[in-house]
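Q: Entry one of two.
A:
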Amino acid sequence: QITKQVPVRFDLKTLHIPTYSAEKLSSMKDTDWNDFLQLVSSLLDSTERSTGAVRSKLNLLCYLCTVAVHKEVASRLINSQLFPILIQQLRAAINWDIRAKVARVIGLLAFHTSELGENVPVSEAILLLTELIRENFRNSKLKQCLLPALGELLYLIASKEEKRGHPRECWVVPSAAYTVLMRCLREGVRLFHC
């Protein structure tokens, strides 16, 4: 059973970056885009653990969810230095709300991107999502957050390889990902569509 998630909202007043629209982001020149990415990356990569810092990071992730639905922005973000930082946040964040929101951003990027560079660490993201699902297998709420991102990444790789006509070594999918995915589907987990 697939359940639509509620729309994501962010608070403009507490967002510590300029709130550009997706259209503005897609038409930015490289220097402005790099400045924007640097700012977003440094805020996400912050190690501060106060309640305010966590709230600020969640707000930023909500903003990223709203712009990641734009094809050009999604393509630019997934192919940037932001994607490895998202993976790092998924691995290291102590707060599960942050991990869930990062997974949603990753899933939205994978779903909406039209371009995928060979150097994008998609396999690393798939492996990490697989491990997190396996480690928290009895927690259905966490699986509902993580599985859509895993599915979107698998579909993205499959569709890109189908277009190219042959598999790419840089996008190796561990067999454990399929095993975990099939186990979840057999047990009838309720999925949330990005």
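Q: Entry two of two.
A:
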Amino acid sequence: FIHFYAGICSALKLTVPSHTVHGIEGQPLHLSVDYNFNATASEIQIIWLFERSQSNPEYLIGSVNQGVVPDLEYQHKFTLIPPNASLRINPLHLSDEGNYIVKVNVRGNGTIAASQKIQVAVDVPVTKPTVHTEPSSGVVEYIGNITLKCTVDRGTRVVYQWMKNGQCLHAGPNYTFS
């Protein structure tokens, strides 16, 4: 009996992205899911859940055969077009960062099920940088120091790199970075 049950379970294969999926705030994001099974199906159910860190998964949208059942709170944000199990999120917000869980149930001779988790990270585009000079005149003769301060108003995973005449600057006797 146990061997038979294990064979039934492996009959449903669910394929999702294996790496973290990065989306851009305000843009749509497509979570691609493929599934296949080697059984006769009378009913196919797809369920999507969302899990933030330290919280229980919450229901987003699901389908049974061709009928879609959205959570009314999110009905305009998430799209599922069965029998495709892929999920479209539009628009993407910072609060959408977390784990998305897809579960597929196939009813035929018995019920086979599989679920997978997709990690989503939301990136905020970096705004144009602003550079402030101290002293504000930008003029220093011979011995004085000049400070260039670069800031951006918004953006995730910001990396700063200073260059002079197209060459990267590195810390040394003439340059210090903070």
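A: Comment on entry two: Residues 1-10 have pLDDT under 50 and may be disordered. The CA atoms of residues 96 and 122 lie 7 Å apart.
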